[in-house]
Amino acid sequence: MKPLHKACCSSLAQVSLVIRSLESHLDKALYQSSGISRHVRHILDHYLALKKGLERNHVNYNHRNREGKVESDFEFASEIICYLNNWLATLKDNDVRLTIESEIIIDEQVNAIFESNQDRELLFMINHTVHHTAYIKLIALKYDIELPDEIGIAPSTATYLREEPLSN
Fold this sequence. Notes:
By secondary structure, the protein is mainly α. It is 61% helix and 9% strand. It has a three-stranded mixed sheet with strand order 1-2-3.
């Protein structure tokens, strides 16, 4: 598996770990009301939008499944992660130019359309996932739930932390 695909699977593994950790602490209502479910859904929606867009060489990050079943069902969220991991395991290299579409202004509807490629968008998925798992970790602390240290840590930060004891 290509390192970038493996890295995406690793970021999705963080989301899986979040779900498994929270399943034993949160009931479905608290999973939804805490906001954690929206972050999980948001992460997975972006991956699904990318998958769909790669099939057409046009990714529209506006087309997401807001308030979907992922927000109310731990098991379904886990199934989506498995589905995405299987897709990533078989994803072929593709250097075809993609058009990316995304809304960019909060006060009015304005879409930006620009060029990208598969690798750049996979990198975006990794960074986006780290960002949202960090938020999930903060929300979990509000409910006195500690998630593993590696949740919400960027790869470069993990390297820094691994090397830090060597410099002291």
